[in-house]
Structure formats: structure tokens, C-alpha cells
């Protein structure tokens, strides 16, 4: 007994076989095309990245001197030491205030301390010392004559002279250094990829490591002032020179091998 009459009919029909073969062929073709579209990206050359670092330098003149000086005195009693300190400090301040080329004048430290000595195996106060320190700015070429006048007036110590460029000049130089570092990094990437016959695609990352000046030059003249008598005359010649501003820029460049 035939339980599948309709199935036997279709299997025995020639047209039905042709229809089934065409259907199976169409499904196989679609499957191959789908598989081919999935594999295609994997057969292409994958993109990679190159990391280069560029350096930029700009030299600018040092146009400002930051000076720290003051008065240090000693006496037997605290009253005498304060009186002498006030007298000399006021004379130095009057000198600095009278100079139109002195800017940003301010007092940075005032101190009064006892001095001790040993007597009969015991520590006793033998006197007092006091200091008054000020800080100001002036053009580097005027430091020598000003220090000479300050010592004659009553200054007994100079803690240091720092030579720097102006804040405006440093800010402008930082931008120039970053610009130069960026161009340097880009030229390195172009040279490397060109030599290796690699195709540059795009810059995917940029890092600026900072544009900052080196530590300012500090001229220590404390020993010179302490050894010189206040009535003696001296003139310190100062050559400011230049200050170097540096910047570093790192680029990450995506590239692709050239297909031959």
C-alpha cells in the first residue's frame, strides 16, 4: 500500500526534479556569496600604526633679573640690633624705590634671633642678629651698578640673582616650540613611511609632552657681599644670554602596506 502518493508523484515528475535542482543551486550560490563577503575583509592588508616623537626648540633672550638682597646686622641687645636693622633697611628701600627701573619690590623675610656662646660650661645669650630681605626685578644690564649702590647704602647680603625671560616671551616661545616639534614629528613619519613604501592613512593620536623652559640661571653672590666692606666699591658685570624653550610632540600615525 502506498502511503505517500503525492510524494511519489513529485519524485517521478521530470519537471519537479528540474525545479528542485534549480532551487538547490540557487541556495548554494547565495551561501557561497555570503561566505565570500565575510572572508573578504580578512584577506585585505590590515592597517597598522607608527609612533614618532618630534622635538622643538626656541631660544629667547633673558630680559629680566630677579634679585634678592637685604641687610643683616648683629648687636649686643635686641633693641640695638633692631634699631640698626631699621636704619639700614630703610636706606636700602629708599634707594630701590627711587629707581624707576626697579619693579615688583616686596619684603620677603624679617627675622630676629639670639646668638649663643658657652660660658662656665653653660649656654648663654651673647647677642642678637637680625635680617631684612627684599626681592625685586630689574633689567640684567643694570644689576651691576645697582648692587654697588645697594652695598654702599647698607645692604650686607645678596641671596641671588635669577635671570629669566619675560612671561609673555615664554608663552609665545612655547607655542613656537610646539609648532616646530609637530612639524619635526610629521617629517619623521613621512620619511620613514616613504622609505618603506608604506601608505599613510591618518594621524590617530597626538600627545604634547609640554613646552617648558629649563631652570633659571641663579647667580650666587652672597659670599662676595659678605667679604666686601660696605664702603668699598665694586661693579659686577652680568651677561644675560638666552633661555631655551623646548617642546616634545608624539604622533601615532596609521599606515597601510602598499598593494603591488
Based on the model shown, name its key terms:
alpha+beta, GMP Synthetase, Chain A, domain 3, 8 strands
Outline the structure in words.
The chain has 260 residues and is of the alpha+beta class. It has a domain at 65-115 and 125-165 and 219-239: MTH677-like (GMP Synthetase, Chain A, domain 3). The protein is built from 6 helices and 8 strands; from the N terminus they run H-H-E-E-H-E-E-H-E-H-E-E-H-E. The strands form 2 sheets. The protein has a 5-stranded antiparallel sheet with strand order 3-4-2-5-7. Helix 3 packs antiparallel against helix 4. The radius of gyration is 41 Å and the shape is elongated. The model is unreliable at 1-12, 29-45 and 222-231 (pLDDT under 50). It comes from Halotia branconii CENA392. This is SIMPL domain-containing protein. InterPro entries: 26kDa_periplasmic_antigen (IPR052022), SIMPL/DUF541 (IPR007497).
Query: How would you classify the helix and strand content by structural class?
Result: alpha+beta
How many beta-strand runs? Answer: 8
Q: Tell me the helix content.
A: 40-55%
Strand fraction band?
Answer: 35-45%
- In the sheet with the most strands, the strands line up as 3-4-2-5-7
The H/E string reads HHEEHEEHEHEEHE
Gyration radius from CA atoms, angstroms: 41 Å
Give the CATH topology of the domain at 65-115 and 125-165 and 219-239.
GMP Synthetase, Chain A, domain 3
Largest sheet: 5 strands, antiparallel
Mean pLDDT over all positions: 79
Low-confidence stretches: 1-12, 29-45, 222-231
Going by CATH, the homologous superfamily of the domain at 65-115 and 125-165 and 219-239 would be: MTH677-like
- CATH class placement of the domain at 65-115 and 125-165 and 219-239: Alpha Beta
State the helix count.
6
Anisotropy-based shape: elongated
N- to C-terminal distance:
69 Å
Gross CATH architecture of the domain at 65-115 and 125-165 and 219-239: 2-Layer Sandwich
Protein name: SIMPL domain-containing protein
Organism: Halotia branconii CENA392
GO biological process, one term: DNA damage response
Amino acid at each position: 500500500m502506498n502511503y505517500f502518493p503525492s510524494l511519489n508523484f513529485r519524485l517521478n515528475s521530470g519537471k519537479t526534479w528540474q525545479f528542485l535542482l534549480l532551487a538547490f543551486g540557487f541556495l548554494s550560490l547565495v551561501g557561497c556569496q555570503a561566505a565570500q563577503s565575510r572572508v573578504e575583509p580578512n584577506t585585505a592588508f590590515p592597517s597598522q600604526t607608527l609612533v614618532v616623537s618630534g622635538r622643538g626648540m626656541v631660544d629667547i633672550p633673558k630680559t629680566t633679573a630677579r634679585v634678592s638682597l637685604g641687610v643683616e646686622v648683629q648687636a649686643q641687645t635686641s633693641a640695638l640690633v633692631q634699631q640698626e636693622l631699621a636704619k639700614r633697611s630703610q636706606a636700602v628701600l629708599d634707594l630701590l624705590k627711587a629707581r624707576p627701573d626697579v619693579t615688583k619690590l616686596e619684603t620677603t623675610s624679617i627675622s630676629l634671633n639670639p646668638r649663643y656662646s658657652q660660658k662656665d660650661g653653660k649656654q648663654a645669650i651673647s647677642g642678637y642678629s637680625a635680617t631684612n630681605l627684599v626681592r625685586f626685578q630689574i633689567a640684567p644690564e643694570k644689576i651691576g651698578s645697582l648692587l654697588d649702590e645697594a652695598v654702599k647704602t647698607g645692604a650686607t647680603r645678596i641671596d641671588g640673582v635669577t635671570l629669566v625671560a619675560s612671561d609673555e616671551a615664554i608663552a609665545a616661545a612655547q607655542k613656537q616650540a610646539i609648532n616646530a616639534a609637530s612639524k619635526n614629528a610629521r617629517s619623521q613619519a613621512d620619511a620613514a613611511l616613504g622609505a618603506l613604501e608604506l601608505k599613510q592613512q591618518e594621524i590617530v593620536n597626538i600627545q604634547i609632552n609640554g613646552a617648558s623652559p629649563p631652570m633659571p640661571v641663579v647667580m650666587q653672590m652672597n659670599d662676595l657681599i659678605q667679604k666686601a666692606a660696605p664702603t668699598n666699591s665694586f661693579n659686577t658685570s652680568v651677561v644675560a644670554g638666552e633661555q631655551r624653550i623646548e617642546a616634545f610632540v608624539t604622533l601615532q600615525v596609521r599606515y597601510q602596506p602598499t598593494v603591488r
